[in-house]
Amino acid sequence: MKQKQDSVEVKAPIQDVWAFFSNPKNLEKITPDDMGFETINEMPKKMYAGMMIHHKVGVFPGIRMNWITEITHVKEGAYFVDEQRFGPFSMWHHEHHFEATENGTMITDIISYKVPLGTLGNIFEPLLVGPKVQNTFAYRAEKVRELFGAV
């Protein structure tokens, strides 16, 4: 299992940041275009524990697959967790934490994942999957700073 943690601080108040992140449709706005990320099912404007989200995502050029996640935990204004139920990973657990700061809001992502295909997957993880996860979250941090202002 691999684990990754990233944080970004933005100038916006926590209420505004939470409102953005707790709307599942906004994930498309902070995901790199080359991933072809698309939310398929209709979404309410506010998430809740037990909510299932169906995405299409490009895992490799020309290859798109279904990615179904469930919002398993929500503490309004503080954190939520999404877990893969079906998709490109053997396991995916993503914690999103939000904390008010003197300058705005600290956003922290903690991702735990396991690649499929056993030994073969473990060989390709540092070559393909790890860098793709890293680039996706670097892009996300850049977009979030653009949307809410960098500290």
Outline:
By secondary structure, the chain is of the alpha+beta class.
User: CATH topology, which one?
Assistant: Alpha-D-Glucose-1,6-Bisphosphate, Chain A, domain 4
Low-confidence spans: none
**Biggest sheet: strands, sense, closure?**
7 strands, antiparallel
Q: Evaluate the radius of gyration.
A: 15 Å
The secondary-structure element order is EHEEEEEEH
Number of strands: 7
* Shape, per Cα inertia axes: globular
Count of spatially separate domains:
1
Query: What is the distance, rounded to the nearest whole angstrom, between the alpha carbons of the first and last residues?
Result: 32 Å
Structural class: alpha+beta
Strand order of the largest sheet: 1-7-6-5-4-3-2
Tell me, what is the CATH class? Alpha Beta
> Helix fraction?
25-40%
Average pLDDT across residues? 94
What percent strand?
35-45%
Instruction: Specify the CATH homologous superfamily.
Output: START domain
CATH architecture: 2-Layer Sandwich
Number of helices: 2
